[in-house]
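User: Hi! I have a protein structure encoded as tokens and I'd like to know what sequence might fold into it. I'm fairly new to this, so please keep things simple.
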């Protein structure tokens, strides 16, 4: 399978929560790269290789464990564990001192709780910080697809690096052309044409996908306010960020509400931000 398909992701891999015959098989076989899983990426990827693909690579777009496999490729190519590579090559150069795969005991008092809605729309505590699977003492597989813990300040440093075409201050992580390449649409059409009309609460008509970002192709078709070429992604706990190269801005929204589809936060946020721009 070309590595490019893992980055788009149009690899044929999936998640257990996506359901279907293959998704159910993932769940039954405990194909899980999450923080509860121990043993490292290598045995998990070897186990994953025993399962069929959901489709021929490149035929469709499907949210799945592609980035977790990319994490293992990083380990193989670099000769480092994924956490060591990310720390030395990204977090330390950008001063992201509160970012990693677990929460140290001396920072637990800063770790936000996680909530989920009840049927009456009230909220209940889903996970207490002191009982979180992300406590460093519990051991974990370093998930490239969703295993990092960070802060709004740290994540803004990362987003600013993208806005500034790979550079923040005197620190350069990527060349500007590399960032532009990452933020270009790498699909033959939009995501809707690739079999994903809606994801979470967001319509994917008029939206493409780069190397791990969605990329706005046509705001009118997407029925979402934005700029051609803006790019970003959201998180499970109703978080979102995007970089707008036309308006030269970064937008971040952080909350702790699961699932992200409960409120149409992302489209409303984009509307509010663009309505506030007056020149």
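Assistant: Happy to help. Inverse folding works backwards from shape to sequence: for each of the 279 positions I chose a residue that suits the local structure. Here it is:
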């Amino acid at each position: 399978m070309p590595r490019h398909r893992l980055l788009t992701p149009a690899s044929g891999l999936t998640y257990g929560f996506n359901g279907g015959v293959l998704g159910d098989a993932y769940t039954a076989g405990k194909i899980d790269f999450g923080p509860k899983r121990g043993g490292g990426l290598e045995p998990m990827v070897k186990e994953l290789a025993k399962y069929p693909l959901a489709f021929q690579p490149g035929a469709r777009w499907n949210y799945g464990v592609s980035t977790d496999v990319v994490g293992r490729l990083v380990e193989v190519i670099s000769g480092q564990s994924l956490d060591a590579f990310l720390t030395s090559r990204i977090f330390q150069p950008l001063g992201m001192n509160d970012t990693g795969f677990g929460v140290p005991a001396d920072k637990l008092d800063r770790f936000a709780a996680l909530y989920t809605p009840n049927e009456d729309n009230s909220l209940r505590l889903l996970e207490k910080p002191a009982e979180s699977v992300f406590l460093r003492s519990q051991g974990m597989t370093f998930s490239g697809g969703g295993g990092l813990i960070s802060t709004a300040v740290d994540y803004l440093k990362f987003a600013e690096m993208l806005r500034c075409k790979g550079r923040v201050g005197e620190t350069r992580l990527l060349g500007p052309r590399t960032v532009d390449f990452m933020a270009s649409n790498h699909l033959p059409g939009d995501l809707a044409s690739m079999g994903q009309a809606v994801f979470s609460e967001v319509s994917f008509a008029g939206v493409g996908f780069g190397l791990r970002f969605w990329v706005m192709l046509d705001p009118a078709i997407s029925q979402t306010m934005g700029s051609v070429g803006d790019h970003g992604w959201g998180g499970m706990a109703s978080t979102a960020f995007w970089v707008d190269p036309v308006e030269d801005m970064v937008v971040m929204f952080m909350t702790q509400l699961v699932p992200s589809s409960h409120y149409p936060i992302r489209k409303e946020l984009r509307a509010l931000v663009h309505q506030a721009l007056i020149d």
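A useful reference point when you look it over: The longest helix spans residues 66-78. Feel free to ask if any position seems puzzling.
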